[in-house]
Design brief:
Blueprint (H helix, E strand, L loop, with lengths): L29 E17 L2 E13 L2 E3 L5 E8 L2 E8 L9 E3 L4 E5 L6 E4 L15 E8 L2 E9 L1 E7 L5 E8 L6 E8 L5 E2 L20 E7 L5 E12 L2 H6 L5 E9 L5 E5 L12 E5 L5 E6 L4 E6 L4 E7 L7 E5 L3 E6 L2 E6 L4 E7 L7 E3 L6 E5 L2 E5 L6 E6 L3 E7 L4
Antiparallel strand pairs: 1-2, 1-31, 3-4, 4-5, 5-6, 7-8, 8-9, 9-10, 11-12, 12-13, 13-14, 15-16, 16-17, 17-18, 19-20, 20-21, 21-22, 23-24, 24-25, 25-26, 27-28, 28-29, 29-30
């Protein structure tokens, strides 16, 4: 699946529907025929949930999250006092048998392996406003056979991702629980239900008092192609101190950084971004990863700056100035190009030199950028529409109406 970017909460689902606070009155999945066939199967976020486009068919599934490879979607709906839970194959639209979960639940995060799902009574986006105060957080872990674990976590937690071995669940712990104003990343042992600390990059336990507490904006995140590492772009972190600063006693003052989380080894490390990243609006920032997973690209359209990051060294290799722009930014990378959409425009840069090669206008502000697997098309979300373009010239090759479109999220079905 071609890498794409989304908000932090939904990254390991990679593509998530908008969800809702309650299940009452939600609709079942529905399929309609589109007027114009779309060349590639797409996953889109719409006001009613998660949409799957296959040729001329459109399927909308409320209360859904998708796997990292786009092959499947997990969904829920109310079933009396309980919840029906099932899996949908995005290539065919076929659904698994529904299993009953006791109580009311919506899907929150799916494992990178695509086999386990964390569900909560209400969805809470990582990049959205802080959650309401609560002293206990119920979490259900399920697969297509039913409930695997029931957790009642003491405190205010938001599930984010599973460990690669499926024994742990990464969560954001909001503190203080009753009136949260900051958060930290922790990992919950699924066997015991106990939240614990992460490790440093050298695999040492984070010392007590050295866990990073964040107050800024988790803008977007990308999952490495090998599904072993999660990279999250944070902005607006004045006077933020990383774990390494807290351990060493350095003051620290990062306005933007990429939080790197190893799903295999359970360590975290932050890659600081230089000025002017984090100075402008959070929405003007975007992150993308190369198909081979060796490079990250962070762009700030407000300042006209792009940073290239080595995922091996976890360091910024270079920054490149460019023309400034406005609007919410979206980014994607194919084998040799970086695409950045913001406002009613798309910028294409050659990855060898990171030199701007093409700028072209589109009809409405961009809401998502997704290259096709063969590199022949670039899909753009726009106002109530999805369009696809020649990546070299920007010429519009096709367009379909999508009422209520929030964003184009990625490709569906097998590659």
């Amino acid at each position: 699946m071609t890498p794409t970017t989304i908000s932090r909460r939904t990254i390991l689902t990679l593509l998530a529907g908008t969800g809702a606070a309650a299940l009452a009155g939600c609709e079942p999945a529905r399929t309609v025929a589109a007027a114009v066939p779309i060349p590639d199967a797409l996953l889109v976020e719409v006001g009613g949930g998660l949409g799957v486009f296959r040729g001329a068919d459109r399927q909308t599934i409320p209360h859904a999250v998708a796997t990292a490879d786009g092959l499947a979607i997990y969904a829920t709906t109310a079933a009396g006092p309980d919840t029906a839970f099932w899996r949908v194959d995005t290539a065919t639209g076929r659904a698994s048998a529904r299993v009953s979960l006791p109580g009311r639940w919506v899907p929150q995060a799916v494992s990178a392996s695509g086999t386990l799902v964390a569900l909560t009574p209400q969805r809470q986006e990582v990049t959205a406003a802080r959650p309401a105060g609560r002293e206990v957080t119920p979490v259900l872990i399920a697969d297509t056979t039913g409930v695997r674990h029931r957790l009642d976590l003491p405190g205010n937690f938001v599930p984010e991702a599973f460990t690669a071995d499926l024994t742990g669940l990464f969560v954001l712990e909001w503190i203080p629980a009753a009136a949260p104003d900051r958060y930290r990343v922790r990992v919950v042992d699924l066997a015991t239900g106990a939240p614990g600390q992460l490790f440093t990059r050298d695999k040492s336990p984070v010392p007590p008092g050295a866990e990073e507490e964040m107050r800024g904006d988790g803008r977007q995140a990308v999952l490495a192609p090998d599904r072993a590492t999660l990279y999250t772009l944070y902005t607006h972190q004045p006077d933020h101190r990383h774990t390494r600063d807290l351990i060493s006693g350095r003051p620290g003052n990062a306005h933007a950084f990429v939080h790197t989380l190893s799903l295999n080894a359970w360590w975290a490390y932050c890659i600081d971004l230089p000025h002017p990243f984090g100075e402008g609006p959070a929405g003007g920032h975007a992150i993308a990863i190369s198909p081979d997973g060796r490079r990250l690209y962070v762009t700030d359209v407000t300042s006209g700056t792009t940073a290239e990051i080595s995922t091996e060294d976890l360091s910024v290799l270079r920054t490149i100035p460019d023309a400034r722009g406005t609007g919410t930014a979206y980014a994607a990378v194919d084998s040799d190009r970086l695409f950045v959409g913001a406002g009613p425009a798309v910028r294409t840069s050659d990855l060898t030199r990171l030199a701007r090669t093409t700028d072209w206008p589109v009809r409405e502000p961009v809401r998502g950028v997704v290259p096709s697997r063969d590199g022949a098309r670039l899909y753009l979300g726009q106002t109530n529409a999805v369009s696809w373009h020649d990546p070299a010239t920007g010429a519009e090759l096709g367009r379909v109406a999508v009422p209520g479109l929030v964003a184009v999220r990625g490709l569906a079905g097998p590659g």
